[in-house]
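Dock flavin-adenine dinucleotide; give full complex structure.
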Amino acid sequence: MVLERGEVANSWRHERWESLRLLTPNWQSRLPGYQYEGPDPDGYMTIAEVIGFISGFAITCGAPVRTHTTVTSVRPIDAGYHVATTNGDFQCRTVVLASGACNRPSVPAVRDAVPSSISCVTPFEYRSPDSLPEGGVLVVGASATGVQLADEIQRSGRKVTLSVGEHVRLPRMYRGKDVLWWMETSGVWNQRYDELDDVSRARGLPSPQLVGTPERTSLDLNTLSALGVGLVGRLASIRDGEALFSGGLRNQFALADLKMNRLLDTFDEWGRTERRDPDVGPSERFEPTRAPQSSTLKLSLRTGEIRSILWATGFRPDYSWLDVPVVDHKGALRHDGGVVDAPGLYVLGLPVLRRRKSSFICGAEDDAREVIEHLAAYLANTKAHQTGVSTVSRRSLSQGPALS
Ligand SMILES: Cc1cc2nc3c(=O)[nH]c(=O)nc-3n(C[C@H](O)[C@H](O)[C@H](O)COP(=O)(O)OP(=O)(O)OC[C@H]3O[C@@H](n4cnc5c(N)ncnc54)[C@H](O)[C@@H]3O)c2cc1C
């Protein structure tokens, strides 16, 4: 049984801005036994296409989805879990948490010091530039969401200032191929969580500065500054109506350029040793990120120059309904590759859950297979010990609800 609080593909229907396209190419849109088969494998899906793709998968695999059923509590009982919903209660032996990694915008505490004259918006509320008040916009965060929205808002005629912290720079195309082709075929995206030196660090990495456009263009900080976007450092604090930025912009740029070049070296090395592809062009390197001539360390939020702040500072999962003690003090679920620290409880869809690609649509393929293998073994092993459990139906004994 799959319990969904809204409709299939709910997050894509209600939690994304209008112009968003996937940053993963169509050929990479794959779910178990299901893939993109349209005429443009190298293109990037619009929101409507993503909704169509996921809804098509739900129909094709006959997923037993109960829509408009919000899970309000999951708590352990002797025979497994008691699941309370707005549409009845269930008991089951196993639960897969597939409720997403991005249920809430993650906004830093400094937001509380923003003067009331400034409108604060998160990517969940933002739909298009028209949804912002007239005037200048401070976009905080320069990962995928921040650079995409800074680009769109600046092009709409509003003046954008972009606050840049740690970021991951990637070109859209490398040696004539989509950079995600390189990530996938070179094996980088398939690196397993238990083979990484520092999995916590990998799980906390910002999303790459990428956008999916028909022109397959890169969207880096050089592109944005050429458009007129003002680049400032990380937002450190807001005091007496002034936003104060860190002065380490040049270092942030150098670090991101260095890491990008290291990754491109990895691709080059792989290309030399593993693959002879006639379509792959010669090695490339890109212009280093240009630092602004003078660094802006503070910006008044009282002069009217900035009228809104867009918090592109990431997303976080919401486990407020999970009455199982498996969430640490930072709000992260304790799990080992999707096997949660409570018998019969599993999770899918979190960053680097089992592989670097885990939190992308195509990441579900391998992760789900391995997590479900564990779940099936768990059911088989525990079934023998659990005789006479009269409250658990045969259906839920074998399937267990997944929240998705
Ligand atoms: C802005 C943005 C852009 C992205 N771009 C890409 C991209 O280009 N390519 C890519 O591969 N991935 C992209 N992703 C990641 C992509 O969203 C995830 O890979 C994918 O959504 C994971 O699917 P999921 O089912 O795990 O989570 P979700 O899509 O978040 O689905 C979780 C579902 O659980 C439901 N739910 C949550 N809580 C409850 C509850 N208590 N009761 C009942 N139901 C509940 C929600 O309504 C939702 O439908 C992007 C993510 C974001 C936020």
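Observed: The chain is about 25% helix and 20% strand.
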